[in-house]
Structures are given as C-alpha cells and as structure tokens.
Design a protein that fits this description.
alpha+beta; Peroxidase, domain 1; Glutaredoxin; four-stranded mixed beta sheet; 65% helix
Amino acid sequence: MKNDILAKRYAKALFVVGKEENTLDDYSRTLKDFAELYTTIPEMRDGLTNRMYPVDVRAKVMAAIVTSAAVPKIMGNFLNLLAQKNRASVLPEIAASFQAMVDRERGICQGVVITAKALQPVLLDKTKQTLEKITGKQVVLKTEIDPSIIGGMVAKVGDLVLDGSIKTQLEGLKESIKGSE
C-alpha cells in the first residue's frame, strides 16, 4: 500500500513534466525498460537497494546505468533521485502508475483476455471491438492461456470483468443444484 502511494506520487510528478515537455512516450518506454531490468537482473536490484551499500554507492550505480543507457537528462535526473532517496525498489510500481496515467490521458484501457487455447486473430479482433464498444475507450489487449477455464473466455478491462468461461458456468450450476436440495 505504501509503495503504491509513493509510486503514484513519483509517477504523477514525472507525468506533469513529461506532458509539459511532450515526452510521455519516451518516459514511458524508459521507465518500462528500467523496471524490466530491475525485476529481471538480480545484480541491478541488489546494487540499487541493498542497505549494505551506502546511499552514495547506490546512487553511483544508478548514475552509471543511466549514463550507459543514454537516457534524456530529465529522466536521468529522475532515476538518480530515486536512487538517492532509496526509492529504486518502487521502480516497477512507478512504471505501472505512469503508464496508467498516460493511458488515461489518451483514452486507452489495458485489458486481458484469458482463454483455454490461443485465440484466432479474427476472434481476438472481434473481442477487442466489443470491449471498445462497451467501455467507450480504445482497448489494448493482452492474451493469456489458462487451460483450467476449460473453454469460453474471461475478459478484464479495468474494473470490468466479463466471465464466460465454462468453469464458472459449471460452478454456478453446481451451486444451483446444491441450493435446490
């Protein structure tokens, strides 16, 4: 919870600057890349967050990464600030919050469609169009495969969840049979 609040504050500050500078896409891409590096490379995570290293050493690690990645000056300053304030551990949450703000600004919703087997492109496109009609926003869909739902699909966009899976239908049938006994 505390990390979410911090992430939103940092993301909002960067969002304001990015909007002013018209660099939201660049900032979003850079944050996403750094968050991915942070989560996938244990040495980077350790170098930026391990309390065994003094703050100035952690800040130097971030500065070296920023320099080698050749990020824009404002973004570099932001990332260096995170290291200096011991907030590098919140980087993935900041990236997610920032992307959510950019999406909201542009009228885009992130969604996921879960199916038992991979969807054909035509069906995925039709699903996307239907979700866009329901939400009134542009929807960017990711797909996930979960054989446990047996068949059908589960679509999630923001707070909206449309569950048309066979698994859920069978559970509902089971409950109605139990209730009628």
